[in-house]
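Sync notes, pocket subgroup
Present: LS, DG
LS reminded everyone that the earlier model was apo-only. Rerun requested with S-adenosylmethionine included. Inputs:
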Amino acid sequence: MPPEARFDAHAHRQMASMFDDVSARYDLLNRLMTLGQDGAWREAMWRRVPEDAAHVLDLCTRNGVSLPGLQRPGRLLLGADVSLQMLEVAQRELATFGWGPRLVCADAFRLPLRAASLDAVTVAFGVRNLRPRIEALTEIARALRPASALVVLEATAPAPGPLAPGHTLWLRHVVPAMGRLSPDPSAYRYLSASIFEFGAGPEFERDLAAAGFAVRECSRYLLGATTLWVAERLGQVPDAGAAGVQAARGASGGIPQASSLARAARARAAEARTWLGVQAAVAAALAAGLMWALMEWSKSNGALPLSEGQRWLGWGLLIAGLVGSAVRAGWLALRWSTAATPRGGGG
Ligand SMILES: C[S@@+](CC[C@H](N)C(=O)[O-])C[C@H]1O[C@@H](n2cnc3c(N)ncnc32)[C@H](O)[C@@H]1O
C-alpha cells in the first residue's frame, strides 16, 4: 500500500496497518517527541470529562492508554479503534490491572452506537487521521446526547509568530529523523505531514462548528505544539448531508445551552488565570528583591574581603538571577493577560 494512500478519505485500513507496524516503539517515540509531556496532556483530557458522564467513549483508543484514567465507579466506558491488533494489546495490558475494559473494533465513521447514547467522547491524537473530518465529527455528534462533551487532544501545526520557525524545523526535520528508530519510518513522515495538513487549530474549530459543536475551551501546551479542545454538542446536528445521520433526542433548536460544561470550563480557566497571576507576582517580587540586592552589592562589595573571582561571581549570580526572574515575570504576565477564556454559552 503506498504511504500517500494514508491521506485518502476513509483510509481506516491503511491507518490500522500503519499503527500495527509502529506499535512496538510507539510509546517510547511518542514520549521523546512530546518531551515527556504526553502523559500530562492525556490527564488534562481525562479531567475535562464531566465526573457525572455515565456513558463515555474513548475513540481511536489504540492500546487503551486513556481508559484507566477515564474509569469512574458506575461509568460505562468504551474504547474503540479500527485496529484489532491494537485492541488486543489494550486487552492484554489492561488485564494486568485485573480489569477487562469494553473494547470495540469500529470505524469512527460508523460507530456501532445508538444516536444520543453517549455523555462524552474523548479522542487523543486520533482526529487528525479521520478524513473527511466533518463527516467523522458529525458521526461523533450523532452518538452524543445534546449538551454533552467532546474532548479532543491533538498535535497542531505552527501558528504564525516568533516560535513558528523552531516549531516548523522540529516537525519537518526532527520528527522524521527520530522516526528512523521506528519499524516504519514512513509513519513519522506521515505524522509530520498530517500535522501540517491538520493546521494550527482554526480549521478544526470551523469543522467542529459545521458538525454541530460549540468550542467551550481551547488550551495550548508546549507553546502550541499540542492543543486540547472541549466542545459541547449542540442541540441539533446540522444537516451536513452525511449518510446515516439521525435526529438526536431532546433537540433544543441548536441554541447553545448555558450548560454545566461551559460553567466548568469558565471556572477552570479563571483558576488557571489566577495561578498565572500569582506566579507572575512572585517572579516580579523576586526580580525586585534581586534588584535591591544588586544595588547593595554595588555599594558594598568593594569593602568585603573577597578575591577578584568571588566578586565577579557575585555580580554574575545577581545579574543572571535578576534577568532570569524579570524575563519569567514578563512571560507570565504576558500569558496572564492573554490567557484563554472559554467561549460561548450563557451563564
Ligand atoms: C495516534 S493513535 C492514538 C492513540 C491514543 N488515543 C493515544 O492517546 O495514544 C491513532 C489511533 O487511531 C486509530 N484510528 C485511525 N483511523 C481510525 C478510524 N477511522 N476509526 C477508528 N480508529 C481509527 C488508529 O488505529 C490508532 O490506534
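DG: The pocket of S-adenosylmethionine is lined by residues 12, 15-16, 19, 42, 60-62, 65-66, 81-83, 86, 107-108, 124-126, 129-130 (CB under 6 Å).
LS: Residues 272-338 form one domain.
Action: DG to write up.
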